[in-house]
């Protein structure tokens, strides 16, 4: 609110953003007219030299600490320098189209960067569960194997923390927004755009090693596995696991390949556990501590053996039926047993209901189906005795009506063995 009122910091900011140096200006500001001169100089430079359209703001608004207009100016600078002037790597080259707004450019780039089964339409609630952010980080640094496909919307904060940490450590993307803000339904659109605008220019920098496949809610008394991948064969890992009371948890190490190690441990008591990983470079003698990973051990049924078939984080067509098959193995229900909940996301009249399941006689198999009834996103959650087995986020879109497609020609009425049978397909009605 007060940083720009003398005009000096505004001039310096514009110099850094534009890469150009200002000429003469008032370096020692005492009087109001000196403030106005400096601010006017900066605003005129933005309009005349940088060709940035400024609306409803003048030097007096900044000198008089008009916070709303000052924030509007800052947002205009972000749009121009962080998004509009960004170097885009879109394969079609369509982002060079000057007619697209900064918001449209960023959204188009994200759609091209993200897997086809994920739908992104906004800079607000689409990013609330951390899954899109995890997929974006994975796309920018594929060998990280982020594992976002296994992430659950119910663990949005942990997923977002993980994705933002990876983006910071490996891509140099600064956390310009707090994870708690990003998962909020009331998240500020401009803050999300500002944060995401760093990704098009991000460069992947591999570290000495990284953890992956870490189970965030291991079960007490059940063996739990995670992996650590090193940058090359000359790097060796060291793992220490601490329990809730600070006691050391026994961990068994197994080398799967030259650069991949598997670690197995078993939580003894419920509560927070901390996994501390250090990697040592034998060739250089360097060592590096990886980010500490916290998991929370819980008491409960080992649901990792439950198999779910027919569901994925994907995009389907309205009216498309998804057949679901679930095998619970030898598990015995103690509470509610197997349940599948369906919840529409982002709808004013959002509904949540239990999916009907049919148990195959004399087996561990349950069957059901779900049909996408309208556009938008739907969360489907599989639970066993109130424990989340897996969650899926499915987007529904309109498809073509193939029933209106017509096939014509003699080849459909009669044909001779060994001879071509010709016919036409009329697609104009579609």
TrEMBL record:
<feature type="repeat" description="Filamin">
    <location>
        <begin position="397"/>
        <end position="430"/>
    </location>
</feature>
<dbReference type="InterPro" id="IPR017868">
    <property type="entry name" value="Filamin/ABP280_repeat-like"/>
</dbReference>
<dbReference type="InterPro" id="IPR036872">
    <property type="entry name" value="CH_dom_sf"/>
</dbReference>
<dbReference type="Pfam" id="PF00307">
    <property type="entry name" value="CH"/>
</dbReference>
<dbReference type="InterPro" id="IPR001715">
    <property type="entry name" value="CH_dom"/>
</dbReference>
<dbReference type="Pfam" id="PF00630">
    <property type="entry name" value="Filamin"/>
</dbReference>
<feature type="domain" description="Calponin-homology (CH)">
    <location>
        <begin position="100"/>
        <end position="204"/>
    </location>
</feature>
<dbReference type="InterPro" id="IPR013783">
    <property type="entry name" value="Ig-like_fold"/>
</dbReference>
<dbReference type="GO" id="GO:0030036">
    <property type="term" value="P:actin cytoskeleton organization"/>
</dbReference>
<dbReference type="InterPro" id="IPR001589">
    <property type="entry name" value="Actinin_actin-bd_CS"/>
</dbReference>
<dbReference type="GO" id="GO:0051015">
    <property type="term" value="F:actin filament binding"/>
</dbReference>
<dbReference type="InterPro" id="IPR044801">
    <property type="entry name" value="Filamin"/>
</dbReference>
<keyword id="KW-0009">Actin-binding</keyword>
<protein>
    <submittedName>
        <fullName>Filamin-C</fullName>
    </submittedName>
</protein>
<dbReference type="InterPro" id="IPR014756">
    <property type="entry name" value="Ig_E-set"/>
</dbReference>
<feature type="domain" description="Calponin-homology (CH)">
    <location>
        <begin position="1"/>
        <end position="82"/>
    </location>
</feature>
<keyword id="KW-0677">Repeat</keyword>
